[in-house]
Amino acid sequence: MPAPAGVGLAIGDVGKTIMSLAGYEDVWSQTSGQTQTTINFANAVFDALKEVCKVKASENDLKAMGVISK
Fold first, then answer.
1. Distance of alpha carbon 45 from alpha carbon 31, whole angstroms
2. What is the DSSP code string of the chain?
3. 55: left (phi > 0), else alpha (psi -120 to 50), else beta?
4. In 3D, which of 7, 11, 6 has the Cα closest to residue 48?
């Protein structure tokens, strides 16, 4: 979850490492399920980053930004 500027990385140690490598500075986290194992938590953080990277924009918005698709 995005956090206000200056909060820092309010997330577990593995999450801090992954988020700092991804360039994020202010993050809150909330987990559910089997997140106590390091691998599960790391996978959850990585999956969250993949979801953030998905961008939805209309054709008009893409044209206004100058995006050219083939």
1. 10
2. -B--TT--EES-HHHHHHHHHHT---EE----SS-SSHHHHHHHHHHHHHHHT-----HHHHHHHT----
3. beta
4. 11
pLDDT digits (tens, 9 = 90+) for 32-66: 776 668 888 899 899 988 988 787 778 888 888 88
> What is the spatial distance between Cα 37 and Cα 32, in angstroms, rounded to a whole number?
12
Burial (CB < 10 A; 0-12, 13-18, 19+), residue 48, is middle
Q: Which two tokens stand for residue 13?
A: 């140690």
Q: Could you tell me which of 14, 37, 6, 38 has the C-alpha nearest to residue 29? A: 14
